[in-house]
Amino acid sequence: MSSAYDDIKRAFDEMKSDGSKITKNAVATRAKRNIANLSKIEEKWVNLRVEIEDAQLNWEGKKEETTKDELIKQLKANVSNLKSKLANEKHKNEIDPKVYDKKIEKLLVLLQEMYAEIDKLKLINADLQNQLVHSGQQREIRVDESTGEIIELVSSTKRKE
Fold it and tell me: How far is CA 143 from CA 78, 117, 133, 156, in A?
């Protein structure tokens, strides 16, 4: 039967070699001993407790460094991924804004001309309808609605009596 000190010391050495997380509780649990043994005031126990605490601080420091390193690697990967996406989008949008603006301007001019022409035609149509109404001659135009073909032009004159 081994002593509590030997068991805890052996468990501590194993955990250091494994790279396991080192805490007083973890060492005592692995040694299957009570953590209260580490509170003893004998010099060997005090020294062991200090070693365990130092190892715990070193392990936490290494964990933070690896976490920072992993974070840096991850961020670098994200940056490179975003740079490649940006390059792809720039390649897709190889449109010169000035040329694009000129095309839009030309289309707007054409659209304005079309609307102006439509307005002129509406005025001419209204004028012609007004002339028909006041000329004394009624004309009726029958149109096939499906084809737009003129079927019959009927003109009737008002007889003055």
Answer: 68, 24, 20, 17
By residue count, the chain amounts to 161
pLDDT of residue 161 exceeding 50, the answer is no
pLDDT tens sequence across 100-114: 788 889 999 999 999
Distances (CA, A) of 31 to 25, 39, 42, 73: 10, 15, 19, 37
Of 11, 97, 99, 4, the C-alpha closest to 44 is 4
CA distance 112 to 70: 60
State yes or no: pLDDT of 29 exceeds 60: yes
Helix (H, G, I), strand (E, B) or coil at 157: strand
145 band by pLDDT with thresholds 50, 70 and 90: confident
Pair 33, 4: CB distance under 8 Å: yes
Structure token digits, residue 46: 């005090």
Backbone φ/ψ region at 54: left (φ over 0), alpha (ψ -120 to 50), beta? alpha
Distance (Å) of CA 35 to CA 24, 31, 39, 62, 158: 7, 10, 8, 25, 123
